[in-house]
Design a protein that fits this description.
The chain has 498 residues and is an alpha+beta fold. It has a single domain, classed as Amidase signature (AS) domain (Amidase signature (AS) enzymes, Alpha-Beta Complex), CATH 3.90.1300. The chain has 16 helices and 13 strands. It has an 8-stranded mixed β-sheet, with helices on both faces. A 3-stranded mixed β-sheet has the order 1-3-2. The longest helix has 24 residues.
Length: 498
């Protein structure tokens, strides 16, 4: 079944190759590589998990079982011939329905008009090719808010994705479908992207690890040069640090003509994740300069600071002076609004007609109107402001290694709070105070699941490194994973529970 559908797909289950536990992606690949399980068997089990659990969370909005099975069969054939490759070969995988396209497959970007038109992608992205070359077996598309424009996954086109820790709460966005699918155990890894927090926020809300790579680390070729003037970057969400590191090794390959490229790492990202970091100079920023921070979120940062001190790192309360500049969101919104007007023109070309107010959600249309009223001079002035502000912020890392802050200013909100016409915009302002700054600077930043509220909701902690410092962050993440393991914490909606 290769169309977009919310209906469950009946699939015969096979004897489990995974046992009672659900391994991470690296361990799943080892089952395939050792011959303990075929790629088809691993895919069938993931399909069975999706059939059983997706209706509770609405994470997967498009099934690609047929093309997934064809890819799995090719992997099994090449393994039989002794001629297979791919460091994650055989691992079931899902792609977010935003930016990562495969020619001829459905692509709707959370928009009802594209869904109703049965729109399909006209080209295959370099990222999709790199995922395939890793041997990941994509069998579905995950839910996203319309055009990825907010931090909750509740599009009118497909309905809300529910948090597996408590289905009355948001998964975050815009990669909320991917995060819910991984947190539930349907797959160990899923595609995500981040233009203002869209990897980190869902990872935080769903108890996952989520690394936003450095600007230019993951190519948008061949169709794209940079996303949102360089604010947006692709990656994944995962349960283990090593999974994200291994994927990043596989997708860090430029496309000819990319406008810029991040410096290559000294070694591999996966090796860094398994290496103890040297003592680091760490700054704590538990509170926002733009509004109140919930004690749960501030406390999670302070607890992380104490943990790092116990691991031998030097920790102090410190942050860049310019981090909460009052003019920041005006310029950020200018860039995002204009870039989305350009993106909308591309969707109009695909549909063969102009899109009007009825073709988008209200907040989306309002942003488009803002973008249309911005002049070229205003846009370039906003970009230049962001460049100058970035240099001022980045200077803090000349005598620090890592900044720690909350991901959001509050724990996960209830579904509906961010979609309310009366209160949604205010609630977005309340929550989104720590992540978009590092989309503008382009620095790598990660969400690490180190805290849960008394009600059992995850609260992620953000760690931000200097430019192109993913190796350092992954090394620190691996150390934290050992010191404060989270793999044994699973949500009530969990595919490993039988």
């Amino acid at each position: 079944m290769n169309g977009i559908s919310n209906q469950d797909v009946a699939t015969a289950t096979s004897p489990s190759a995974l046992g009672e536990d659900l391994p991470d992606g690296v361990a799943t690949h080892e089952l395939f590589a050792s011959g303990a399980a075929s790629a088809v068997e691993l895919l069938d089990e993931a399909i069975a998990r999706a059939d059983r659990w997706n209706h509770q969370i609405n994470a997967i909005i498009g099934r690609l079982d047929d093309s997934g099975r064809q890819a799995a069969e090719r992997l099994d054939d090449t393994r039989s011939a002794g001629d297979w490759s791919g460091s994650l070969a055989g691992v079931p995988f899902l792609t977010k329905d935003l930016t990562c396209t495969t020619e001829g497959q459905p692509y709707h970007a959370g928009n009802a008009a594209l869904k109703e038109a049965g729109h399909v992608a006209s080209s295959t992205s370099h990222l999709a090719t790199m995922f395939a070359e890793l041997g990941l077996v994509n069998f579905g598309r995950t839910n996203t808010p319309e055009f990825g424009l907010t931090i909750t996954t509740e599009p009118l086109a497909y309905g809300a994705t529910a948090n597996p820790w408590d289905t009355g709460y948001s998964t975050g966005g815009s990669s909320g479908g991917s995060a819910a699918a991984v947190a539930t155990g349907i797959v160990p890894i899923a595609h995500a992207n981040d233009g203002g927090g869209s990897i980190r926020v869902p990872a935080a809300n769903c108890g996952l690890f989520g690394l936003k790579p450095n600007r230019g680390r993951v190519s948008l070729g061949p169709e794209g040069g940079d996303g949102w003037a360089g604010f947006s970057v692709d990656g994944v969400v995962s349960r283990s640090v090593r999974d994200s590191a291994r994927v990043l090794d596989g997708i860090s390959r430029p496309w000819p003509g990319d406008p810029y490229w991040a410096p290559p790492p000294a070694g591999t990202f996966e090796a860094a994740a398994g290496r103890e970091p040297q003592p680091l100079r760490v700054g704590l920023c538990p509170h926002s300069g733009w509004g109140p921070t919930d004690p749960e979120c501030a406390g999670a940062v302070e607890d992380a600071g104490r943990l790092l001190e116990s691991l031998g790192h030097q920790v102090e309360y410190s942050k860049p002076d310019e981090l909460f500049d009052d003019d920041f969101f005006e310029h950020f919104r200018t860039v995002v609004a204009v870039c989305n007007v350009v993106a909308l023109a591309g969707y109009e070309a695909a549909l063969g007609r102009a899109m009007n107010r009825e073709d988008t959600e209200g907040d989306t249309w309002a942003l488009m109107q803002i973008g249309r009223d911005i002049s070229g001079t205003q846009y370039l002035s906003a970009v230049e402001w962001c460049h100058a502000w970035t240099r001022a912020v980045a200077a803090w890392w000349s005598d620090h290694d890592v900044l720690i802050s909350p991901i959001m200013a509050e724990p996960p909100p209830r579904l509906g709070e961010l979609r309310s016409p009366e209160t949604g915009r205010d609630r977005l302002t309340d929550l989104l105070q720590f992540t978009p700054q590092f989309n503008v600077t382009g620095q790598p930043a990660m969400s690490v699941p180190l805290h849960w509220t008394a009600a059992g909701l995850p609260v992620g902690v953000q760690f931000v490194g200097a430019h192109a410092s993913e190796e350092l962050l992954l090394s620190l993440a691996g150390q934290l994973e050992q010191a404060a393991p989270w793999a044994d914490r699973t949500p009530p909606v969990w595919a490993g529970s039988g």
